[in-house]
Design a protein that fits this description.
About 70% of the residues lie in helices and about 0% in strands. It contains 17 helices and no strands. It has helices at about 1-20, 25-55, 80-95, 100-110, 115-125, 125-145, 155-175, 185-200, 205-220, 245-260, 265-280, 290-300, 305-320, 320-330, 340-355, 360-370, 375-389. α1 packs across α2 and α7 (about 155-175) packs parallel to α9 (about 205-220).
Length: about 400
C-alpha cells in the first residue's frame, strides 16, 4: 500500500509540478500526498463491502453524473486537458529505453490504476513477473531521467505502437473484467475510448490510431446488451441488437473506412474490420463468420499469438463446424500462457459440448473456474457446468 501510494504521488507530481511549479519542500509534498492516498484507500476499503452489496442491487449506484467527476476507482474521463496529461504520461511510460512488456505494465499501473493481478491477467503471466517489470521500469525512468511529454517529429512513430497497445489493453480490461462483481468496468472502457480519441486527434493522418478508436467504438456499442437485468452474461448470439448504440457503430464504421482508404494496413484495422462484421450483421445467424476467420488469419501476420489463433478457431468453428475449431484449440492446449486464459477453456468447452463430448466439456469448464474471472462470468460458467450434469 505504501509503494502504491508513493507511486501515485509521483505520478501526480509529474502532472502538477510542470504546470504549477515545484513546491518549496518536494519531499514533504510527496510524503503528504502519499499519506492522504493511503488514508483514502483505507477509508474506501472500509466501505467496500457495503458499496459492492449496493452495486449488486443497483448496478448504476455510485456512478458519476457528469464526465468531469471522478469515478470511485479514481480514474478520470480522458477529455481535453486531462487527455493531454494522460497521453504525456503514457508516452513517458512507453519510452523506447524501457522493455516493451514493462512499458505496458507500467502504464496500466501508473496511468490507469490497474492492480498487478489485473495486469497479469491481461498479459497471461504470473503476478510477481508483472511486479518485477514495474519496479525495473520505474528504476529505469529515474536513472535515465525520462521526461513527461508527448514526443514529436521522428520520435513519435517509434513510440506509437506501444501506446496504441496500452490503450487497447486498458479497454480489454474494462470490456471483460478479470475480477469483481461486474462483467464490464465502464470507467476503464470510457477512459480508453477517450485516450484513443485523443491519439486519433494528435495524429489525424495515421490510420492505426483511427482504426483503434473505430475498434473500441464498434465493440463498446454492444455494452448495454452484454448483460441482463440481473447483471448476468448475455452471449453475442442472444443479445438484443436494438440495444446496441447505433451512433457509436456509425462513427466506428466511418473511422474504419477512412483508415482503410489510407492504404497502409495494420493490426487495428483488422481488429476493427472484425468488429464491423458483427455490428453490420442484422442478426447472429447472418454474421459472415468466413470473413471473420479470414481476417483473423491475416491478423496473425501482425500478432502471431495464441490468443489470436484461439479467436480464429472460434470463427472457424462457426463457419466450418465445431470439430474444425476444436482441432485448432486442441493444438494450442499445450501453450502455458493460453492455459491461464479462462476464455480459452470456455470456448473449448462450448465446442466440446456441441460435438457431444460432455465429460471433456465439464473438465474444460472446471479448468476455467480455477482461473480469475468476474462474478457474472463465473456464474455463467457454473450454469453451463450444471446444465451438462
Amino acid at each position: 500500500m505504501a509503494e502504491d501510494a508513493a507511486q501515485e504521488a509521483c505520478a501526480l507530481a509529474l502532472v502538477k509540478w510542470p504546470a504549477e511549479g515545484m513546491p518549496a519542500n518536494p519531499g514533504g509534498w510527496l510524503a503528504g500526498v502519499a499519506r492522504h492516498k493511503v488514508l483514502d484507500q483505507m477509508r474506501r476499503e472500509a466501505r467496500r463491502a457495503g458499496k459492492e452489496a449496493a452495486a449488486m442491487r443497483d448496478p448504476t449506484s455510485g456512478l458519476p453524473a457528469t464526465p468531469d467527476q471522478r469515478w470511485p476507482e479514481g480514474l478520470p474521463f480522458a477529455d481535453g486537458a486531462a487527455a493531454a496529461d494522460e497521453l504525456g504520461l503514457i508516452f513517458m511510460c512507453c519510452h523506447p529505453a524501457l522493455d516493451p512488456a514493462a512499458r505496458i505494465a507500467l502504464t496500466l499501473r501508473s496511468v490507469c490504476g490497474l492492480d498487478s493481478r489485473s495486469i497479469a491477467t491481461a498479459f497471461i503471466v504470473p503476478e510477481p513477473t508483472v511486479a518485477q517489470r514495474i519496479v525495473r521500469a520505474k528504476r529505469k525512468i529515474r536513472q535515465a531521467g525520462i521526461r513527461l511529454r508527448v514526443p514529436d517529429g521522428e520520435e513519435l512513430p517509434g513510440r506509437l505502437a506501444a501506446v496504441l497497445r496500452v490503450v487497447y489493453l486498458v479497454y480489454t480490461q474494462g470490456h471483460l473484467a478479470a475480477s469483481g462483481p461486474e462483467l464490464v468496468r465502464g470507467a476503464l472502457c470510457d477512459q480508453a475510448i477517450g485516450l484513443a480519441r485523443a491519439l486519433a486527434g494528435l495524429l489525424p493522418g495515421e490510420p492505426e490510431p483511427a482504426a483503434l478508436l473505430a475498434l473500441l467504438l464498434l465493440t463498446d456499442a454492444r455494452r448495454d446488451a452484454r448483460t441482463g437485468d440481473a447483471g448476468e452474461v448475455v452471449l453475442l448470439a442472444d443479445q438484443d441488437r436494438s440495444r446496441w448504440d447505433r451512433a457509436k457503430i456509425a462513427e466506428g464504421e466511418l473511422l474504419l473506412e477512412g483508415a482503410l482508404r489510407a492504404g497502409r494496413p495494420g493490426p487495428y484495422q483488422l481488429h476493427a474490420a472484425i468488429a464491423a462484421c458483427h455490428s453490420c450483421a442484422p442478426g447472429a445467424d447472418q454474421t459472415d463468420w468466413r470473413e471473420i476467420a479470414a481476417l483473423y488469419g491475416e491478423l496473425i501476420r501482425y500478432e502471431p499469438t495464441a490468443v489470436v489463433e484461439a479467436n480464429r478457431a472460434v470463427a472457424v468453428a462457426m463457419s466450418e463446424g465445431p470439430a474444425a475449431g476444436l482441432v485448432i484449440l486442441d493444438a494450442l492446449a499445450g501453450n502455458q500462457r493460453i492455459a491461464g486464459w479462462p476464455q480459452f477453456h470456455i470456448a473449448r468447452a462450448e465446442l466440446l459440448t456441441r460435438v457431444g463430448r460432455h465429460a471433456d466439456a465439464a473438465l474444460a469448464y472446471q479448468a476455467a473456474l480455477r482461473l480469475g474471472m468476474s462474478a457474472p462470468e463465473h456464474a455463467f460458467v457454473e450454469r453451463r457446468l450444471a446444465a451438462l450434469s
